[in-house]
Amino acid sequence: MRADRLLSLLLNLQSRGQMTARQLAAELEVSVRTVYRDLEALSAAGVPVVASGGPGGGCRLMEGWRSPLLGISAEEATALLAAASASGPLERTALGDALAQARLKLLAALPAAGREQADTTASRFHLDTQAWFKPPEPVPHLPVLVDAVRQDRRLRLTHASRPGAAGAVDPLGLVAKAGVWYLVVRSDRGIRAHRASRITEAELLPETFTRPADFDLAAHWARWATEFEASLDRLPVTVRLSAAGLAALPQVLGDTESAARAIPDTHEPGWHRLVLHFDDRQAACRRLLGFGPDAEVLEPGDVRRELAQAARRTAARYGDAPDAMP
Known about the structure:
Layout: H1 2-16, H2 21-28, H3 32-44, E1 49-52, E2 58-61, H4 74-84, H5 95-108, H6 112-122, H7 142-151, E3 153-159, E4 162-177, E5 180-187, E6 190-195, E7 199-208, H8 217-231, E8 235-241, H9 243-247, H10 249-253, E9 263-264, E10 272-278, H11 281-288, E11 295-299, H12 301-319
Antiparallel strand pairs: 1-2, 3-4, 3-7, 4-5, 5-6, 8-10, 8-11, 9-10
């Protein structure tokens, strides 16, 4: 128990810098006297602990001293190694070598008896962040974007939607969502997110920038994603699907989640009702045709009528056709 507490004390000082004995006591849930005894034990073990009294005083480690990775368990190492397997495209950037070195150091920090077990167990977990039925998006400029984000270097970007226009931006971070990379930037237009695959040119500029002190990438992305989804004018379409149609949802729409929301249709035994969302009426008709007779649009009426007309035209196209083209 005391060994665990000593390790926690050391890690607190190493990660947080100077702390008072009272702060350490509250963090470790012990008395101040116990904290001082533990500090003496660390000092006796060769850890350079410095304590100073008076206003502004506290406990800290000697300037520049860092301990190696301590106290990591085989389970913790397994979790970190498994998570590192999802690095994907980062392997091909400047962070690729760092990732490989981090794995080696992580294993080296374990006792010899636990290394093989952690490595073997981690190999049984694989995190695949790519969405179903969608090929990975090529992001040829990802290495440049990674370097710019790491070094706080400004970028000059050109987008596929505006091939003749290039603008300088401050790259605040990169986000990977379901296999798609987004670059979060700051410019005179505010903070925006750009789909990285649509960046046709990316030039690393010599000047650096100062990122906003209060900027939190994860919090900003969560807000932006929520606002983006709410801003889309999505068309809800109520459909009735057979068991085969329900099973075909991932193949036809690339949707692996909607099937869980389907409810049995009381008017058609063996069929299910489900509300799907599309960008517009034309997109709904084109995509729902892929289900053939295993899907029926119930509402809205204009989508049902247009889909029925499309089905009749398709049937007419094939109605008089021979079984095989000559």
